[in-house]
Amino acid sequence: MRQESVSMLVGYARVSSSGQSLDIQNQALMEAGCDKVFAEKMSGTSAKDRIELANAIDFVREGDTLIVTRLDRLARSVGDLHRIIEKLAEKKVGFRCLNQSGVDTDSSTGKLMLSILGAVAQFENDIRRERQAEGIQKAKAAGKYRGRKPTIDPGEVKALRARGLGAYQIARKLKIARASVYRALAA
Description:
The protein is an alpha/beta fold. 51% of the residues lie in helices and 11% in strands. It has helices at residues 23-31, 51-59, 71-74, 78-90, 108-141, 154-162, 167-174, 178-186, and strands at 9-15, 36-41, 65-68, 94-97. It has a four-stranded parallel β-sheet, with helices on both faces. α6 crosses α8 and α7 packs across α8. The N and C termini lie far apart (56 Å).
């Protein structure tokens, strides 16, 4: 249980995949004086389903400061970034970014920097997605890309359908969504 009257520096660290390490971020946050660090291995494309981020936002109190090492560790879209910062502002919690030193919500210049860097981060994410799509199209044209392996066997779905089962029953039996059943039947 935390004491309400003591302001804290609270860190948040995130990597995108389980194969990546949180060690460097955790160390930087501890060196910055964070009293507590919330860390998770989760994609940053959306703030939804990021349990430790939600826990960090829930944990901080008026006068605290949430700290991240880089802005893209917190959010990859301007919309998510602004929603998170608004939640912190409502709780009267500051925000600081270690590697982008101008980002500090205690000043109007820091707020401006936050918006600019958030827009740049989203732009970089969009460019990365476009390049990936171009690479996939190029690989498909060369016959080198086959996509991910199917998670269900359309033949099994069709066999169950031939036995008289409806889409809902097939979906429950195979533990898949009904939309997947319809796609398999159409294939």
